[in-house]
Design goal:
By secondary structure, this protein is an alpha/beta fold. The protein has 2 domains: about 5-15 and about 95-225, HAD superfamily/HAD-like (Rossmann fold, 3-Layer(aba) Sandwich); about 15-95, DNA polymerase, domain 1 (Orthogonal Bundle), CATH 1.10.150. The chain is built from 10 helices and 6 strands; from the N terminus they run βαααααβαβααβαββα. The protein has a 6-stranded parallel β-sheet. Helix 9 links the parallel strand 4 (about 175-180) and strand 5. The N and C termini lie close together (about 5 Å). The structure holds magnesium ion.
């Protein structure tokens, strides 16, 4: 029987792609780059690669924040200061929020039936700003932001710290729900808890890391959790 549900935040409950697009558009305008789809796609590709390097343990979070703008400006031939851009972008990212369709209803539905936890990789100031803006902290027993924990998903260290903070924690009573295979699913598998891959684009499931369960819409989660 499931008692604890750990939720990823970005692109699982809140639409990070939308928040990113708004903050990036304003940052690019500041840097003198036309914020068209080409520029946004270029930045996104560089950004994803830097996060993969973080997940692989190659670089730190601080390096991700700076290097994505350093590389982007260099490849775009722009002379703007990457450190200033990074600070501006982060401040903008912490403002406003955009729910994934059905996410707020899902939390309303699950609240009281399960102990809900937020398990996110991210910058504390940004994530607190977005969660406050969405008014969503009230749904959670505890909030685990990697920057505050000093470890990131998918490391076992991250999950150990989370589990230590969950009262009467039992792995067989715990689910990890998230959209990202390389952090949420790989991390949950390593930590010995069941994983639910939120896969709204209905992409083919890989063999590794293998999610225990797959949902394509958040409204499928209550039924699944009740069966386990
Ligand atoms: Mg995510």
């Amino acid at each position: 029987m499931i008692k604890n549900i750990l939720f990823d935040l970005d692109d699982t409950l809140l639409d990070f792609k939308m928040a990113e697009k708004v903050a990036l558009t304003k940052t690019l305008e500041w840097a003198g780059i036309t914020p068209d789809q080409r520029a946004i796609d270029h930045y996104s590709k560089i950004n994803s690669r830097q996060w993969e390097r973080l997940e692989a343990g190659e670089i730190t979070r601080a390096q991700v924040k700076l290097s994505r703008f350093e590389i982007f400006f260099r490849e775009e031939g722009i002379g703007a200061d990457p450190a200033q851009a990074a600070a501006r972008y982060e401040s903008l990212l912490g403002q406003g929020h955009y729910w994934i369709p059905g996410a707020q209803e899902l939390l309303e539905n699950l609240q009281g039936k399960y102990r809900l936890y937020l398990a996110t990789n991210g910058t504390a100031s940004v994530q607190h700003g977005r969660m406050d803006s969405a008014g969503m902290k009230e749904y959670f027993q505890d909030i685990f932001i990697s920057e505050e924990l000093g470890a990131d998903k998918p490391s076992l260290e991250y999950f150990r710290i989370c589990f230590d903070r969950i009262p009467d924690f039992k792995p067989e009573e715990t689910l990890m729900v998230g959209d990202r295979l390389t952090s949420d699913i790989l991390g949950g598998n390593r930590a010995g808890i069941a994983t639910v891959w939120y896969n709204p684009e209905n992409l083919p499931a890989p063999d590794q890391p293998k999610p225990a369960y797959i949902i394509t819409s958040l409204d499928q989660l209550p039924g699944l959790a009740a069966e386990l």
